[in-house]
Amino acid sequence: MKTLVLKINPENPEGKKILAAARVIEAGGLVAFPTETVYGLGANALNLRAVLRIYEAKKRPLDNPVITHVARKEDVYRLARNVPEDVEKLMDAFWPGPLTLLLKKAEGIPRPGGLDEITIRMPRNKIALALIAASKPIAAPSANLSGRPSPTTAEHVLQDLDGRIDMVLNGGPTEIGVESTVLD
């Protein structure tokens, strides 16, 4: 497989490039994209086969859950059940941003290994938000081989995953450079 790399404007992501990446995700493919923390490796979060491709590409153990990224706070209520009031306050205070929340998943949300929980976050990066909005929730751990450092540039992604994934949206270096905080 040849990995397609699209250079994309981080301040004003080009709609045609976002739609091309969204089509790949909707078709069950894998797209690496920048967030404010690190580059993520995205797949359609509602397609178990696509999510399993993440595990295959990364050589990631199935017991290591992936974060589901959303573009709107309202999406959380379709992905999780019994969202506590304290979680709503955290979303209001820290989203969009580098905060991941661990919740009980809603019925019908596929999870490898049959896990009953889901981790959800809303990134602050304009490219990430545009891609998620164009393609629905995206399952996306860091875009690297399992056990390797998390990538902060498209070049880092390609060092590990070139030929293993469909596309990389190159939006330049990430802002923070470390993974998001996870709260249970």
How is this structure best described in words?
The chain is an alpha/beta fold. The chain has 6 helices and 10 strands, in the order βαββαβαβαββαβαββ. Strands 1, 2, 3, 4, 5, 6, 7, 8, 9 and 10 form a 10-stranded mixed β-sheet that branches. The longest helix has 12 residues. The radius of gyration is 15 Å and the shape is globular. The model has no long low-confidence stretch (mean pLDDT 96).
The ordered H/E elements are EHEEHEHEHEEHEHEE
Measure the end-to-end span. 38 Å
What's the main sheet like?
A: 10 strands, mixed
Task: State the oligomer.
Answer: single chain
Poorly predicted sequence stretches spanning 5 or more consecutive residues: none
Helix fraction, binned, reads 25-40%
> How many DSSP E strands?
10
Secondary-structure-based class equals: alpha/beta
Quote the beta fraction. Answer: 15-25%
Radius of gyration, Cα only, in angstroms? 15 Å
The averaged pLDDT comes out at 96
Shape: globular
- Number of helical segments with 4 or more residues: 6
What's this entry about, in short?
By secondary structure, the chain is of the alpha/beta class. The protein is built from six helices and ten strands; from the N terminus they run βαββαβαβαββαβαββ.
